[in-house]
């Protein structure tokens, strides 16, 4: 099967439909499948349920799909950087299923492993546990969480080969690996495409069996930085001079 496609639109051809469930990798806007998100926006599909750690920011990532009102429901952990998200939620226009971050990660991992549900202490006795089954094990209380599995997973990787084997880099190795195994179809955008055999098998994070389609990021692909937290050059230089005095 040929997995490489010329662009994001071609990579998603025939996979998108209204009211589907999509997993979208990334943490903040690090490691987000931005090309694939833009292709989804251009497709016009609506009524989407999106599983993602966060909802991007107002002008990047999943924030683009919120602006066009293509998302009906978000299953997320953190959404504090997106004013559009907050506005739609408070207006009753967007449904939210909040999860503790570790619980969300485990729900995705469980879905990929074929585990329908599991018990965790996290959230017991809080609003997170409302309407969910609880049990006591060895004197401790737990809440049951369901595994998550999507129609489509869109992910970003640093490197991939023609067989779909993927390698992630630093912070971008976040929700991407677990989402790759938790959907009927996984489509990946990669920064670097290499020939089969060029990736050391011990360095592969996601085996190609999980990845159905690939698209190579263009040379001018931009990786946004959400918040810069470095000091100004003058301040840094002054601090360095003081430390040497």
From TrEMBL:
Alphabetized Pfam families for the sequence: CoA_trans
Keyword Transferase (UniProt): yes
Gene3D superfamilies named among the record's database cross-references: Glutaconate Coenzyme A-transferase
Superkingdom of source: Bacteria
Zinc-finger found in the keyword field: no
Keywords: Transferase
Name of the protein this chain belongs to: 3-oxoacid CoA-transferase subunit A
GO molecular function: CoA-transferase activity
